[in-house]
Amino acid sequence: MVDAAMVREFTDLLSENGVITDEVGLRSYECDGLTGFRQVPALVVLPRDAQEVAGAVRLCAKYGMPFVARGAGTGLSGGAMPVADGVVISLQKLRRILEIDVENRRAVLEPGVYNLEISKAAAPYGLYYAPDPSSQQVCTIGGNVAENSGGAHCLKYGFTTNHVLEMEVVLADGSVVTLGGPTGEQAGPDLRGLFIGSEGTLGVCTKVTVRLLQTPETVRTVLADFPSIEAAGDTVGDIVDAAIIPAAVEMMDSLAMEASEAATGAGLTVESPAALIIELDGPADEVEAEFEHLTAICERHGATRLHVPTEAEERQKVWKGRKAAFAAVGRISPDYIVQDGVVPRTRLAEVLTRIAEMGRDAGLRVANVFHAGDGNLHPLVLYSEAAGEHDVAEKLSTDIAELCVELGGSLSGEHGIGTDKACSMPAMFSEDDLGVMHRVRLAFDPDSRCNPGKLFPTPRLCGERPGKYQPHPLEEAGVIERL
Amino acid sequence: MSETVTPTTVDDLRDAVLDRPGTIRVAGAGTAADWAGTPAPADSVLDLTGLSGIVTHNPGDMTVEVRAGTPFAQLQSELGEHHQRVAVDPARAAEGATLGGLFATADSGPRALQYGSLRDLVIGATIVLADGTVARSGGHVIKNVAGYDLTKVLHGAHGTLGVVAGLVLRLHPTPQATATVAVACDRGASADLARRIADSPAEAVAVQWHAGRLLAVVEGSESGAEARARRLAESVGGELLAPDDATAAWDAHAASVRHRGERAVLRFGVIPSALTGVLDGLDADTGGLDEVTTSPRTGVATVSVPADADVVAAAHRRIAEAGGTSTLRQRPAGAELPALGPAPAAATVLRAVAASLDPDQRLGRGRLAPWIPQPTGVSA
User: Fold this and answer.
1) ipTM of the complex
2) Does the domain spanning B177-249 belong to CATH 3.30.70.920?
3) Cys-Cys with B98: which of A111, A436, B28, B133 at CB 3.0–4.6 Å?
4) Smallest CA–CA separation between B14 and chain A, in Å?
5) Which ranges in chain B belong to alpha helices (H)?
6) Fold identical between B177-249 and B258-330?
7) CB within 8 Å: A183 and B148
8) What is the tens place of the pLDDT at every residue in B119-155?
C-alpha cells in the first residue's frame, strides 16, 4: 500500500510534477485501449529519463510494489491496465529521438517516441521504419516492443522483433542491462528476442535501437472490389502461388467499408461484398511486372472495380480508409469489440464462414477488417451496451479467438494477450508450455512484480483453475505433433 | 566414456533425457563441434540426426515444420520442389549441417542482410528441457504474439538451456533468377562502395567483401534480376559475373568462412561504421588476419587469427570495446581458447534463465562458459 514515506521518496526522485496521487489524476490511467477492463492504480509516476525509470523501479522493489510500464496506453488487450495497489510508470516524458544514424541506417529512441515519428524523422534521408501498426500515429515504440507490434506491411517486412537491434532494459530489481547488440547477429542466446513481445512482464525498456530501411523505389497500390469474400480470398491464394510477396494485402467486408467510408470518404465501394487493398513495393521493373500479373489475377476472380491511385496523396487516402476502420465502426454501432486472431491463410474462407454463422447465432453483427496475406483477422463484434448485449458480445469475441486456435492459428497476431485473453491461453498452450514460460518470467522477475496478472492465466483473473489442455485438433489428426 | 543415444521421436528424446542421469551433450552432424566453448566431458551424447524429416509442409501458407536433426541442404532441396526456400544460406549447410545445429549456433550466411538469420524465420518450436518437460512455443502461423517467444532464447544457446526437437519456419518463394555483381576493391574501400550499393535501387540481398572483391547478389524475376544487376555493375564500376564465375566466387567465399586449419576462427559483429577500424586494429594485434570475409552493411565479419589464448582474448576485448560481440568459430584440436568476449551485464539474466531451465546444468556444459560458468567442484 502507498504511504506518505513512499510518496515522499518518489517525489524526491521525480519532483512534485512526476508523481500523481490524486483520485482524478489516477483515474485517467485506469485503462488502456481495452476500455472494458479498469483498475485505478495506487500511484502514477512520470520519470523524465532512463535513470529516473531505474530509480522508480528500485523504489518499487524497495516497497515490494507491483508496477506496470505504460506508453501511450493505446494497447487493445489490457496489457497496460494498472494492477490493484500497484504503480504505473508512465514513459510519456521519454519522448526524444536520440539519434538518426543515416550511415548505419538505424535510429536510437526513447520508449515514448511515437511509431510514426520515427519514419518522419528518417524520411529526409530516404529511410523509414517498417513496422506500421494502424495506431502508428499515437502508439509508442516502447509499447511496440512490449507487444511485438506488426501492422499492414509486416507480411513482407516482419514485425518489431525483426527490426529492433538493441534495447536498454530496467529489470525488476532496478538493475540496467543491454539486450541485443549493434548488429542483428549476436553472441549467445537471443535475450532481445525473448524480451520483445513479453508484454511488460520481464522489465521496462528505456532505450531502443531500430533498423531503418531504404524507401522503396516504387510503390503500387490497388483497391479491388470483389463479388464475394471467397473471390477475394481466392485472389490472395493465387497471388501467393504466383510467388508474389506484396508489401501488404488487406481485406475489408461490406460492413467495415460502410463504416470506414462514412468516416473517411476514402473512396471505398460500400455496396461491394469485399475489397482488397494490395500494395507492391520494390525496384521499378519488378514491381511493374508483378503489378500487371496481380491485376490479371484480380480480374480472373471477377474483380468488379480496380482503383489504382497514382499519386502518393491518393494512396494515403485509400490507406486511411483501412487504418481508420476500427474507430469508424463506432458510426454504425454504439459499442464494439476489436478481436485479433490468426489462422493459416489457407483457412481464411472457412473461418469467415464460421464467424458469420456464430454472429448469426449470437444475434450480433460482425464486421471484418484484416491482414489477408498473413491470416491475421480483426473481426469487430458490434453490440449495444444499453441493450444489454455486452456479455453475449464478449463471449462471441472470445469464441472467435479460440476458433482461430482450433483452426491451427493463434489467439493473437499483434494486439497481445494482456488481461483480455489470459484466460484463453490454455486453449492454445499446455500447462507445461505455460509452465516453462513462467519459469523464464521468474528468472527475470522472481517476485512477479512486473505487470502481474497479464499474459498468464491466473485463478484470480479466470475464476478457476485453467482447464486442462485439450489436444490441438491438428495434433489429433496427426498433422502436427506434440510429443 | 560417454554413451551416445540416437532418438528418432520427441518421445524417445524426452525419455533419453529423463532416463539418463548426469550431463548431456547435444550433437547434430558435428559440423560445429569445435565452435564456441570446449564442451565438458559429458555422461551422454544425444545424437539428434535420427530425429529427421519434414513433419508438415503447407506450401499455401508458406510454413514448414521440421525435425531438428534434418540436414538443412536436404530440407532446402525438398522445399525447392515447391519453389520455396528457407531464406538463409550458411556456409556449413553444404557439409551436412542440421537445421537444429544451425539454429543452436546462430549461423547464417550472406543473405542475412535481407532476410536476417534463422531467429527471424522461426515461428515455433518444440523444446525438451533437462527435466524432461516438453514445451511448445509459437505455432504454425507467421504472425503470432501469444505467449513468450521462447524459441528465441535457444537461438545461439549452443546446446545449453534446452534441446530443440523441432522448428516451424516461415518460407519465402525461390526467386526466378539470381545474379552476382563483383567489384574489385580493397577492404578499406569496401565500406563506401557497399554503401553506394545499398543506396542504389538494386535492392541487393547480400553484399560481402572477400579476397579483394565486393560481391553483391540481386534476386528477382527472370528478366528483372539480370537487368538490375547490370545497371548496378555499371553504376559502381563492377562486372556482372557469368553464372559459373558467380558460383565459384561464392564457393570460395564459403570455403573462407569455413576455413579449417591451424588457426582459430572468430565471427563478430560491430556497428557497420566501426567495422573497418576494428579490422585494422585486429590486423595489428594479431600480426595479420587471414581468411577475412565481411558484410560491410551489417557489420559482421569472419576472420582467422593465431590459435593462441592471449591473442584470441585480446581480439574479443577489442571487439567488445567497439561495442560488438564475438564468438569463437573454430578451435583447432587441443587448443584451449576463450569462446566469448567479456560477459555483458545481461549475463546475469542469462545465468538466471539457465538456472531456471536447467538448474543442474546438464545440457551443453562448457559451451557458453564463462557467460554461463561451469559449476565449480563438480566433475561431469
Assistant:
1) 0.97
2) yes
3) B28
4) 8
5) 10-19, 72-80, 99-104, 112-115, 118-121, 151-154, 187-199, 222-236, 243-257, 275-286, 309-321, 347-357
6) yes
7) no
8) 999 999 999 999 999 999 999 999 999 999 999 999 9
